[in-house]
Amino acid sequence: MYVLVKNTIPRGLGINSVGHAVLSAYLKFKEHPDTVDWLENSFRKVTCLVSPEQFEEAKKTEDHVVITECDYYDKEVAIAFRPRVEWPESFKKLKLFG
Q: What is the CATH number of the domain that holds 48?
């Protein structure tokens, strides 16, 4: 599962948003075969910091949930994607959250 966090938000808010994003994506896609396999065999997550432009581009990838935070003026802060076998090449080049 990839989780992308905007690099324009405070770090602490980003960390909380990752938790919200992972749970939201799991609940939305828990019946999908790739999610079932992920839960049983991997549970791997990749969390990345992205620019607002990268965030908008990533929203074009299917099967995701966007997280807004009321503590941040209800702005979009993170996005999580349904687990899958193959990821867009652009995801593999994103900067890890660290």
A: 3.40.1490.10
Q: What is the pLDDT of residues 13-51, one digit of tens each?
A: 999 999 999 999 999 999 999 999 999 999 999 999 999
- CA 86 remoteness from chain centre: 15
Per the listing, tokens 């019946």 go with: 31
Residue 90 one-letter amino acid: S
| Structural domains of the chain, count | 1
Model pLDDT for residues 60-77, shown as the tens digit of each residue: 999 999 999 887 889 999
DSSP letter (8 states) at residue 94: S
- Cα 22 off chain centre by: 7
Q: Which of 14, 3, 15, 6 is nearest to 81 (CA)?
A: 3
SS3 42: coil
Q: For residues 87 and 81, what is the distance between their CA atoms, to the nearest angstrom? A: 10
Domain that holds residue 67: 2-96
